[in-house]
Design brief:
Helix content: 25-40%
Largest sheet: 6 strands, parallel
Strand content: 15-25%
Number of helices: 9
Number of strands: 10
Radius of gyration: 20 Å
Strand order of the largest sheet: 7-6-5-9-8-10
Order of helices and strands: HHEHEEHEEHEHEHEEHEH
Oligomer: single chain
Distance between the termini: 52 Å
Shape: elongated
């Protein structure tokens, strides 16, 4: 069974302030949980509706009913398992390779997809502004499909972070240079901005090279690309030169 105190704790973790208070986050689904179990993430407790994850000690696993799972799940259609993991300690940011910097990304789906893209393209480090959506938001964790276990994510004052960098800082803009015609380095920081407002003015002042994805076709009416879609294109281009 799930106790009332456990239900209260787990449901509270849907909010950032309680994730920070308890230093715990929720993961759901066999795929996501298995990826996290195989990583350096520390399992707090596992709830399952059937015999799963035989490698997990019985003291850390509770078999519950589907009705009980619905009470603690963040999903409209719950899977068959939910786990609590400890939020990892932030690592020191790297200074080599391509680093992704997120300036006020707000949508959990976009955040999760960007983390997954970084995993796919071998980007080890994401540096986020303090206003960017929490990477341990349940919707973000779900969207990463386990990739959150392989990408280091740090939250900081982005302007201060960028001002200390000695590498080229790239920013994504509508009026930047055509990314397909640029020779891109292996080392650098690529900044992606807010879904509605783009890169903030304070951060824009620190950009050393503005890049853009050109529009094709005769009409060219689309205002912009989804930030996660744009990330995929930019990372593909950067990796083409690595």
């Amino acid at each position: 069974m799930v106790s009332k105190s456990q239900i209260k704790l787990i449901t509270s973790l849907q909010q950032k302030k309680f994730r920070q208070e308890h230093q715990l986050f929720i993961a759901e689904g066999v795929k996501v949980i298995q990826e996290l179990l195989l990583s350096n993430f520390v399992l707090e407790h596992l709830f399952v509706t059937q015999e799963l994850f035989s490698e997990v000690d019985t003291e850390q696993k509770t078999v519950i009913t589907e009705t009980e799972l619905k009470k603690i799940s963040c999903l409209s259609t719950p899977n068959n398992c939910l786990a609590l993991f400890k939020v990892p300690i932030q690592k020191t940011t790297k200074s080599s390779g391509l680093i992704i910097a997120l300036d006020d990304i707000r949508d959990p789906g976009n955040m999760g997809t960007i983390i997954r893209l970084c995993d796919w393209f071998g980007i080890e480090q994401i540096v986020c502004s303090e206003q960017t959506v929490d990477a341990y938001n349940p919707k973000v964790v779900q969207a990463t499909m386990g990739s959150i276990s392989r990408v280091s994510i740090t939250y900081t004052n982005l302007s201060k972070y960028l001002s200390r960098q000695s590498v080229e800082i790239f920013g994504t803009f509508m009026d930047g240079k055509n990314v397909y015609k640029e020779s891109l380095p292996k080392d650098g920081v690529l900044v992606l901005g807010n879904e509605a407002n783009g890169i903030s003015k304070d951060v824009e002042k620190l950009i050393t090279s503005k890049l853009a994805i050109p529009r094709f076709g005769d009409l060219q009416k689309a205002e912009s690309l989804n930030v996660a879609t744009a990330t995929a294109i930019f990372l593909s281009e950067f990796k083409r030169f690595s």
